[in-house]
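FW: tagging you since you asked about this chain on Friday. Here's the raw sequence from the shared folder, copied in full. Didn't touch anything.
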Amino acid sequence: MSDAQPTVFVVDDDDSVRESLKLLIESAGWQAETFGSGEEFLSRQRVPGPTCLLLDVVLPDLNGCDLQSLVADRAEMPVIFMTGYGDVPTTVRAMKAGAAEFFTKPLVDDLLLDAIRNAIDRSYAALADAAVRRALEQSYASLSRREREVMALIVAGRLNKQAGGELGISEITVKAHRGKMMRKMNADSLPALVRMADRLRLATGLKG
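HL: got it, structure written out here
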């Protein structure tokens, strides 16, 4: 994934702005794709590699903030806003919603390129984080029901004997399940397992 060339999306209804930004982006070594409206962009299939979005606030259909909310689940695609009007409430709304930067036109090339570079770094980090999460979810899915029960009790601080008492099984049996569970989770220590459980709670509802 790290070998994928980053793609910078540009959504702006001004033809000249789209063309100049496309040239600037490509001169920096990134791919550029331009769109004249929010709906046009939303019809584009999601890209699996690193991306960021340069988004105009005023568009002919959806406004920029509405489009930002529709792609809020794309953590791997930071949003950089640009506008021809200095609108403080809009800026605040965009930044609170997670925008990486907010620029007022005319754009300064060096500042914009720096912002894109930082956004792409964030995209790489988000993609790496998602890959780790998927691996954890796959490991957790491989556990048996009993191994999940043991994991939940162990990360909640129970000793093997205590876990056995709660589950109605012997301490030796708990140890056996715990060993298999640790191997399947690729956890080399209890602290590592606790960190994994903390991340899995968001996706699996694992309870301590």
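FW: The radius of gyration is 23 Å.
HL: agreed, and The first strand starts at residue 7 and ends at 11.
FW: great, closing this out.
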